[in-house]
Amino acid sequence: MTHTQAVPAITDETFDAEVLVASADLPVLVDFTADWCPPCRMIAPVLDEVAREEAGRLRVVSIDVDHNPATTAAYGVMSMPTLMLFRGGEPVKSLVGARPKRRLLAELADELPA
């Protein structure tokens, strides 16, 4: 798993606390990822940069779909990487596939606090 300190890994067990509860204060971007997924490896450094640069406005976490099937199934994630933005405990946006940082930030801009 290619996660870093800027993007902590979460699990089925920690999902509620790390995402649903935490997103009451700050939007949480969940990266549904897998070790075998080349686009997941491509977007990992992008998410790392976003996590550091947007730390006051957005929290980024990563969840391995192979090791956390309950959360993956609960949100109907079929493709990797899927990026799901949660606010107030609810998913408000879902993006599928790797993308450059500028495009990702543009797609998230409407959902982030000013």
UniProtKB/TrEMBL annotation:
Active site: C37, C40
InterPro entries for the chain: Thioredoxin (IPR005746), Thioredoxin-like_sf (IPR036249), Thioredoxin_CS (IPR017937), Thioredoxin_domain (IPR013766)
Family: Belongs to the thioredoxin family.
Protein name according to UniProt: Thioredoxin
Paired cysteines (S-S): C37-C40
Site (Deprotonates C-terminal active site Cys): D31
Gene transcribed to yield this protein: trxA
Annotated site residue numbers, Contributes to redox potential value: P38, P39
GO BP field: cell redox homeostasis
Native organism taxonomy: Bacteria, Bacillati, Actinomycetota, Actinomycetes, Kitasatosporales
Organism of this sequence: Streptomyces hainanensis
